[in-house]
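Handout for the seminar on molecular recognition.
Each group receives one record of this type.
Step one: identify the two inputs.
Step two: read the structure output and locate the region that could contact magnesium ion.
Step three: write two sentences on what you found, then compare them with the reference statements printed after the record.
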Amino acid sequence: MLAVNELFETIQGEGVFTGVAAIFLRLQGCPVGCPWCDTQHTWDKNNQAQVKPEQLIMKTGDSPSWAGMSEQAVLELIEQQGFTAKHVVITGGEPCMYDLNALTELLHETGYQTQIETSGTFEIKTSAQTWVTVSPKLDMPGGYEVRADAMARANEIKHPIAMQKHIDALDALLERCPVAAGTTICLQPISQRPRATELAIETCRKRNWRLSVQLHKYLAIE
Ligand SMILES: C[S@@+](CC[C@H](N)C(=O)[O-])C[C@H]1O[C@@H](n2cnc3c(N)ncnc32)[C@H](O)[C@@H]1O
Ligand SMILES: Nc1nc2[nH]cc(C(=O)O)c2c(=O)[nH]1
Ligand code: SF4
Ligand SMILES: [Mg+2]
C-alpha cells in the first residue's frame, strides 16, 4: 500500500523538466528531517490523519492527511481526474521509502513517463525507465546517509544550497559517490533566499551546471 498525501496537476517547477506539465503524486512519510524542508506536513504518517482516497482530491493547502492506496487505485484516481499531462512526478515525503517498481511499471504501460524526487538516502526501487532526481541530503538531523547506489542511478542531481559549505559538501559527495557520465547537476537555492540565489547563479556559471529556482514558488502555483 502507498500512503498518498496528494495528487494534482501543475507545471514541474524544479530541475531538468522545469516547465513541463506534470501530475504530482506526493507520498506521506519522511524521517530525514531537513530543517528548511518545504513539505514538513508529509513527515509523519499518523493513523489519525488517514482519509478516504476520494477526500484527497478535495484537499486545499498543505495538510498531513493521507490515504492508503494500491498502485491500481492510484492509476484509476489519476485517470478519473481528466488530467492531460503525461509526465508523473512521484515525490513526498521520501518516495523511496516505498517500492515504486509496480507503480512506475503500471504508469509506463498506460502511456505515462515517470520521474521520482528523492533524497538519495533510501534504496531506489523503480522502473529502469524512470527519470531519477536525487537531491542529496547531507548531515541532516534524521541521521540518514546518501547512498552511493542512489548517486550512481541518478539522471539528475539537484542540490539545495544556501552557503559555500553546501557546494563544498556536494564536491566531497561527488568524489565519494560518483555519478554516471551525462548526469545533469543542478543547484537549487534554498527558499528563494537572495544570497543563496546569487551563489547558485555564480557557481553554475563557473562550473557549467544548471540553475533550478523552484519556478512554482515565483509563480505562486502549487
Ligand atoms: C520536498 S522534497 C521531497 C522529495 C525528497 N524527500 C527529496 O528531498 O528529494 C522535493 C524537493 O524539494 C527540495 N526542497 C525542499 N525544501 C526546499 C526549500 N526550502 N528550498 C529549496 N528546495 C527545497 C528538496 O531538496 C527536493 O529536491
Ligand atoms: N510545481 C511544483 N514542482 C515541483 N517539483 C518538485 C516538487 C516537489 O515538491 O517535489 C514540486 C512541487 O511541489 N511543485
Ligand atoms: S528529505 Fe525531502 S521531504 Fe524529507 S525533510 Fe528533506 S526535503 Fe523534506
Ligand atoms: Mg515542493
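Reference statements: The chain has one domain: 2-219. The mean pLDDT is 98.
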